[in-house]
Amino acid sequence: EAPPVAAPAAPLTAAQKEIIAHEMDDIRRDHQHFLVIGMPTVPRKNEMDYLLRTLDALRDQVAALRAPLDLGAAGGRLRLLPAAAQAFLRGAHARAAGLSILVVVMNVSGLPHGRFLEAQARYRDAPFIEFREHLDPQPLEGPQQSKNRNVPNAKVRKQTRDLVALLRAAQGRGRHFLFMEDDFVACPGALLATLHYLWKADARAPDWLAVRSSYGMNGIALQDKDLGAFADYMEQHQARRPCDHLVVEWFAGETRQAARHKRDRPHFAYRYNLFDHVGVTSSLRAQASPIYPICYEMLHKGILFEVEAFDPKQCPGDDLWPCDRQGDYREVFQADVLYDKDRKEQQKREHARAKQNSLKKQSR
User: Fold this and answer.
1) What pTM value is reported for the model?
2) Where would one find coiled-coil regions in this protein (predicted)?
3) Could you give the CA distance from residue 344 to residue 276 in angstroms, rounded to a whole number?
4) b/e for 273-290, b at 16 or more Cβ within 10 A?
5) CA–CA distance from 242 to each of 12, 43, 64, 155, 215 (Å)?
6) Which of 49, 172, 343, 363 is 20 to 30 Å from the Cα of 99, by its Cα?
């Protein structure tokens, strides 16, 4: 059966046109990008091409903002959306036209990185991608492994310092910043969904502190004005907690220092996971791989800490939590149909098999 034909997007209201005009004026005046995506990268075992896959997906979605919206791209998954959701995407696509996006890719390994060099060659003419090298001046002192994974060892502390360097390189370059890891591929429609929740957060609480749209250190949006404070916080506390824990305690205001910066500024959680983790599969490791969230899986408290998770009971008809305050921008992207239940069941079966094989090896 052919998918329903989407109704054309409703024309922009006068208020929406005024908001867009202000956005573009601010960006032109400050010579800033609307969104800067920061991506640290390191060489992988067997030169796995995670970085290239991740950048290819971003290239396609950035390029799509400059062309008519094609719902048949990326395997045609977006054609599964109901007519109202397709119309929403058309409206978001029209609003995004002309917005400037910059991707900063930073080799933080201090080692030869073949895929990084390959990406530089492939994207040498892409104006929206910038490549940088960072060499951490601090030696890897202390044990490389820790019995308690919540106590950072030398390698984890270096990872935190690498993110500090990335934040400092991105600071002042754009209005919003988004963390991406080099082995998380953007899901179909993820870039438009990201722009959507940034517009929505700006409308609900212009002074918002963070928006969560994935897990780990991926899919965390911040405002440019906060990058310096967060970089300082991570640098100061690198020996106490891993970076993906520090970021939550910082935007949730869980320490006195973080609370002083947060004040009464809200942080938001987006309903869906917008990035697909391709960096770990059960075939690459002996032990069972974790069951990672897949594209458009709901980011509930079973996946994230409760303080950063989307709450469907509080916001059943919304895609941004909390939803107790509303602004002029109230559109909702209803994308539940993009969650692939069959793939999730297959993932669970593979996890169970890997876990069983791991137990057999341990019993020998």
Assistant:
1) 0.86
2) none
3) 12
4) bbbbbbbeebeeeeebbe
5) 44, 21, 36, 10, 14
6) 49
